[in-house]
Each structure stands twice: as structure tokens, then as C-alpha cells.
Design goal:
This protein is mainly beta and 163 residues long. 6% of the residues lie in helices and 46% in strands. The protein is built from one helix and 13 strands.
Length: 163
């Protein structure tokens, strides 16, 4: 069954028990390692963490949302990122080592490809479909600010359609 809705609609459905599952425990071909975490005094009720996320060649997450803000940095490999709802802010690494301007990527059928040193800002209204289209492992760093006790991401377990 295909669904059409906004990212706010996705979050409301998750709160009501819509088919979803926490995926910090793992998705086939995707491993997440917490490198460090803590609770900032200036952000009560939130946890700041840094994770190393590795996608095996061909690994994919059909759809996911985050319970807070996340910034990702591609260390190696290629990340195919399709925005299914909401928008993401992407910055590309320039040849001189600096970062290019932020570009808003809106929901649509065409994924963007992030390469080493590129970044993406993902907030809690973003619904995305990340995957590794290459034959090499994809390694990213994910810095997250999430409510304490909530998983880094929640996998959407029902098919969706982009409006």
C-alpha cells in the first residue's frame, strides 16, 4: 500500500504507532558504532552523540526519520540520499578543502550523491532513503542531538510515494 503525506504527517503516524522500528540495533548491511556521547548542561533532556556508520556495498535503508537533529560527514565511499519528505541541507567539499554553500535538497524522486568530505544537515522533519550504490563500503560520521533514550533513527516499514 502506497502512502502520500508530508514529513509532519510521518511524525504524527510514528507517534500513533504507524509501522516503524528503531534501528540503532541494526539494518542488514549497516553498522552503527557510538564513538562518544553525553548530556549537555545547556540542552536538558537531550543527548549529544557521535557515531561511525558503515554501509556495506549495496546496503540501503528504505526510509527513516530521526528523533532530533543530525549532521553527517562522508569519510569514504558514496552516499546516495533521496529525500522522501521535508528537506535536507547539503554542503559539498570544494577542491581547496573549504566547504561550498548550503544547498536545500527537497523531496523528489531523484537522489543526490554525497562524496568524501560532503555534509548533510538532517532534522526531525526529514524523511530520507539513504543507500550505498557502490562496490566499496560507505563510512560516515553522524553527530546527533536527540532526546535522551530515543534511537538515532527510526526505520519506516511501509511503502511510501512521493507526492
Amino acid at each position: 500500500m502506497m502512502k502520500m503525506m508530508t514529513s509532519a504527517g510521518f511524525l504524527a503516524l510514528l507517534a500513533l504507532g504507524w509501522p516503524a522500528s528503531a534501528q540503532d540495533a541494526g539494518v542488514k548491511g549497516v553498522t552503527r558504532t557510538v564513538l562518544g556521547s553525553g548530556q549537555p548542561v545547556a540542552a536538558p533532556g537531550l543527548e549529544l552523540s557521535l557515531r561511525r556508520v558503515v554501509f556495506a556495498p549495496g546496503a540501503t535503508i528504505s526510509g527513516e526519520v530521526h528523533s532530533g537533529m543530525q549532521v553527517i560527514y562522508v569519510l569514504s565511499g558514496r552516499l546516495s540520499l533521496q529525500v522522501l519528505g521535508g528537506s535536507a541541507m547539503v554542503r559539498r567539499a570544494l577542491p581547496d578543502g573549504s566547504m561550498g554553500p548550503a544547498t536545500e535538497i527537497k523531496a523528489g524522486p531523484t537522489p543526490v550523491t554525497l562524496r568524501p568530505r560532503d555534509t548533510a544537515l538532517e532534522n526531525e522533519t526529514l524523511v530520507l532513503h539513504p543507500s550505498n550504490p557502490s562496490r566499496e563500503p560507505l563510512v560516515i560520521l553522524a553527530g546527533s542531538l536527540m532526546p535522551i533514550g530515543r534511537p538515532q533513527s527510526v526505520q519506516i516499514t511501509e511503502s511510501i510515494r512521493i507526492p
